[in-house]
């Protein structure tokens, strides 16, 4: 079957390890199923995999891709939950959880095998392309907002780095849920897009907000850490799910954290139940993922390059 896969690890030039071509059909263990992929979306996780983060040389070649929507062996339109082993279903109770592409082959292929437990019905209101955007970036944003930030309608939230998949999802979901959303970006075009998606305000990275916020969603890391802390109300929460600019800010500013009683919460992906709720929310409220571009699978390299350069707003989707 045709696939896009990591053939080599290259920390400095990750795209040099990406290849497209034929790979073996997936093995299907007991209590697993196959899904014929119709659409799959890119995440920064795929780029980090090519750098060897979470993926070792001994696991190569590895088909990349965490997210997909398609048709299962019984002809049902489905969405794949990308966290394998979180419940023990299909792998045994002692196996630690992993994302697709860390231990098991991923979704950038004509077919993928996953535990039956990891398959959810695709709402008819969502296209395959839209549904394929949800299981990683949009699920991460959903958990950050509604589980870990603990915000309610009327509360204010700052989303750092408008344009990325998680940040874009947070703007759309937050606005749809009645939050007062503010966003930052270095680029005027992305700030304008954030406003069009429902943000109340959008400012340059590091600029002063109209007022302090109840929560900050942080995926940028070192470059925006200080601004995130300064933007919080006393008792506010910063939720971190990534650090694309690096994990080590120049100063941790612990005095600000303890003096203002700020909460710092880590967040990774989300549960199958949260994904089911996200799918229902999008279907019922007319919320749709922001798609930057859609490419056929044989142009995967083009999509990876677009993501690596940061030249996007929303998700890059590969169709099969």
How many DSSP-defined strands?
A: 18
Which outline best applies? globular
Number of helices: 9
| Class of secondary structure makeup | alpha/beta
Instruction: Round the mean pLDDT to the nearest integer and report it.
Output: 95
Q: Compute the separation of the termini in Å.
A: 11 Å
The H-and-E topology, N to C, reads as EEEHEEEEEEEHHEHEHEEHEHEHEHE
Proportion of residues in extended strands: 25-35%
The description of the largest β-sheet is: 7 strands, mixed
Unreliable runs, pLDDT <50, ≥5 residues?
Answer: none
Oligomer: single chain
Helicity, in percent? 25-40%
Radius of gyration (CA) equals 19 Å
Notable traits:
single chain, 320 residues, alpha/beta, seven-stranded mixed β-sheet, six-stranded parallel β-sheet, 18 strands, 26% helix, 26% strand
Task: Describe the fold and architecture.
There is one protein chain. With 320 residues, this protein is α/β, with parallel strands linked by helices. 26% of the residues lie in helices and 26% in strands. The protein contains nine helices and 18 strands. Strands 3, 5, 6, 9, 10, 17 and 18 form a seven-stranded mixed beta sheet that branches. The chain has a six-stranded parallel beta sheet with strand order 13-12-11-14-15-16. The longest helix is centred in the middle third of the chain and has 15 residues, at 134-148. The protein starts with a strand and ends with a strand.
């Amino acid at each position: 079957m045709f696939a896009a896969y990591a053939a080599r690890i290259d920390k400095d030039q990750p795209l040099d390890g990406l290849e497209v071509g034929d790979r073996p059909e997936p093995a299907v263990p007991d209590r697993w199923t196959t899904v014929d992929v119709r659409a799959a979306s890119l995440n920064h996780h795929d780029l980090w995999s090519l750098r060897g983060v979470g993926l070792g040389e001994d696991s190569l070649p590895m088909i990349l891709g965490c997210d997909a929507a398609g048709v299962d062996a019984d002809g049902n339109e489905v969405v794949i939950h990308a966290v394998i082993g979180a419940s023990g279903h299909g792998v045994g109770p002692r196996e630690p959880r992993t994302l697709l592409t860390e231990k098991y082959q991923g979704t950038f292929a004509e077919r993928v095998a996953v535990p039956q437990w990891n398959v959810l019905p695709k709402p008819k209101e969502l296209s395959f392309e839209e549904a394929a955007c949800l299981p990683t970036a949009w699920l991460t944003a959903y958990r950050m907002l509604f589980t870990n930030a603990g915000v309610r309608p009327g509360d204010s939230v700052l989303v750092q780095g408008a344009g990325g998949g998680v940040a874009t999802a947070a703007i759309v979901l937050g606005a749809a849920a009645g939050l007062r959303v503010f966003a930052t970006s270095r680029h005027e075009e992305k700030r304008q897009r954030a406003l069009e998606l429902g943000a109340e305000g959008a400012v340059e990275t590091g600029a002063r907000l109209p007022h302090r916020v109840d929560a900050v969603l942080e995926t940028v890391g070192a470059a925006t850490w200080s601004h995130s802390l300064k933007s919080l109300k006393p008792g506010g929460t910063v939720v971190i799910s990534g650090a694309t600019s690096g994990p080590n800010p120049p100063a941790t500013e612990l005095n600000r954290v303890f003096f203002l009683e700020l909460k710092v919460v880590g967040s990774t992906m989300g549960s199958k139940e949260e994904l089911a709720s996200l799918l229902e929310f999008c279907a019922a409220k007319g919320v749709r993922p922001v798609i930057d571009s859609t490419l056929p699978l044989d142009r995967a390299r083009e999509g990876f390059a677009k993501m690596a350069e940061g030249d996007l707003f929303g998700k890059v989707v590969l169709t099969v």
